[in-house]
Design a protein that fits this description.
heterodimer, A: 284 residues, Rossmann fold, 2 domains, 6-stranded parallel β-sheet, elongated, B: mainly alpha, 8 helices, extended
Chain lengths: 284, 204
């Protein structure tokens, strides 16, 4: 190939790159791919850990994440909530981010636990609002749960709910589920829940954070859902269909142009460099 | 330094030393309160900065406009939060959250996606063996994430899993242990006065 072709490969205008990326993301919206999706080991672990909990177990959900990454969390959180509500277990969530409790509430309204699963708020599940101070609050929830809040997400006194009176500290929780948009989230969660109280932690996080979180799999973290793909896998395993397949197709097909342009850019770079070396050799 | 020492001792102290655990627990609660207060402090500092930009400082009209938009949006959002009967759990506030905050946040993330593609194309060039390894690992990992990856190249799934759970875990665990040990050594050196770098940085 001539040098000009390599140089052209290095200088594709931003406009073309953007247009091609948009086209790729539009494909699954117009024509859903429906490709089979193999279920990964962390998702299997996530599902099995919840399914194997004894009836009456209480789960503590550290609900973080952000609205900006809604497409990354929606399918995972929705599938997880449906799975939890379908089992004879109890759970309460509190917000480690300001968006976390709002996201949980939006999804719960969509599910309608009372109508769909016959679950009672305050008895089978409970949602608290955002409680700041990150790791220190996690430590406080684990040490003395009642010390961190007196009202629930709706501003009502927590003392009226039977579930709130069943939890005092980490010893009352059978499992921790951590939802976060931070790639070092598992470092914090494992320090507070596992190192001190020996609790197992399941994680829901963005796809890009799985290389960091996987360090804790499977001994501390028996399972994890990362990105829309993790949510889709749980939808398949739990039998609760949701938005995961559409989101996975769209977000993942968006990665194809990234890979294509990464490869093209490098072909251009290596080609130009190689030809330059040849030209220098010829001059000598 | 005293607080650091206390937290360090508490971690290793047996359960019989109840006083140490109680003091640490109380200080942790104080930390929560201080952090909450810092949020308010941050809001005040931000509002003051933008108020000065609008009303006092001699800056160009664009900066005044940006600050004005921020100022009005923040106060408006805050006011609506307090004005709606059920506060943040109310339907009014959640409508604002769903229809204003969420699309804005998602749009910003979507813009980042395009910058990632431009950045990957323009800067992620294979200039050494190390960058080649990182690039190859990234491509394999991304192909593993795609539904089309394992569909058209079946070995990409187990190979990607192996890369993630063996090569990646070995590297990051080593890094985490090194950082942990480094932080401990640095902390201990600071405690005994051998590490003065941070103090000098504060003086500057």
């Amino acid at each position: 190939m001539s040098r000009s072709i390599y140089e052209k490969l290095r200088k594709i205008p931003d406009g073309y790159i953007g247009m091609i990326s948009i086209l790729f993301m539009l494909i699954p919206v117009l024509y859903p791919l429906g490709l089979p999706l193999p279920v990964s080991a962390p998702t299997k672990g996530f599902y099995q850990t919840i399914v194997n909990l004894p009836p009456g177990s209480i789960i503590c959900i550290d609900s973080g994440g952000g609205m900006a990454s809604w497409s990354e969390f929606e399918s995972s959180m929705l599938a997880m909530l449906k799975l939890l509500l379908s089992k004879p277990i109890k759970w309460f969530s509190w917000g480690t981010s300001s968006d976390g409790p709002v996201m949980t509430d939006i999804l719960l309204k969509r599910i309608d636990p009372a109508k769909t699963f016959g679950k009672v708020y305050g008895k089978d599940y409970l949602t608290l609002g955002y409680i700041g101070a990150d790791e220190m609050t996690i430590a406080a929830v684990a040490a003395n749960t009642h010390s961190v809040a007196s009202v629930d997400f709706f501003g009502k006194s927590l003392s009226q709910y039977p579930l709130w009176n069943e939890v005092n500290n980490a010893k009352d929780f059978a499992l921790i589920i951590s939802i976060s948009g931070s790639c070092t989230n598992m470092d914090v969660e494992s320090r507070q829940w596992n190192a001190i109280y020996g609790k197992k932690i399941l994680e829901i996080n963005m796809a890009c954070c799985s290389p960091m979180s996987i360090n804790y799999f499977p001994s501390i973290m028996p399972g994890g859902l990362w990105g829309a793909k993790g949510g889709t896998e749980l939808e398949v395993l739990s039998g609760f269909p949701g938005p995961g397949a559409r989101l996975t197709d769209a977000s993942n097909l968006g990665l194809i142009p990234f890979i294509v342009f990464l490869v093209l850019g490098n072909i251009g770079y290596i080609g130009t460099k190689y030809l330059m070396k040849e030209e220098e050799g010829a001059k000598k | 330094m005293g607080l650091t020492a206390l937290f360090l001792i508490e971690y290793f102290a047996a359960a019989e030393f109840k006083a140490i655990h109680d003091v640490k627990g109380e200080l942790t609660r104080w930390g929560t309160i201080v952090s909450g207060f810092m949020l308010v402090f941050g809001v005040v500092v931000l509002l003051r900065h933008h108020f000065l930009q609008i009303a006092v400082r001699k800056v160009n009209w664009k900066d005044k406009l940006y600050s004005g938009v921020f100022f009005i949006t923040f106060l408006g959002f805050l006011g609506m939060g307090f004005a709606t009967p059920a506060r943040v759990s109310g339907a009014d506030y959640q409508w604002i959250y769903q229809n204003m905050y969420r699309p804005t946040g998602t749009a910003i993330t979507a813009l980042c996606f395009f910058w990632c593609i431009y950045g990957g194309y323009r800067t992620f060039t294979v200039r050494s063996w190390e960058s080649a390894a990182i690039g190859l690992g990234a491509v394999i990992y991304m192909l593993r994430l795609l539904p089309v990856g394992p569909y058209f190249i079946p070995p990409i799934e187990p190979f990607g899993d192996w890369l993630l759970s063996t090569i990646n875990v070995g590297g990051t665990r080593g890094g985490t242990i090194a950082v942990g040990l480094g932080a401990l050594v640095l902390g201990l050196r600071t405690l005994i006065g051998k590490e003065t770098g941070m103090l000098e940085a504060v003086k500057e």
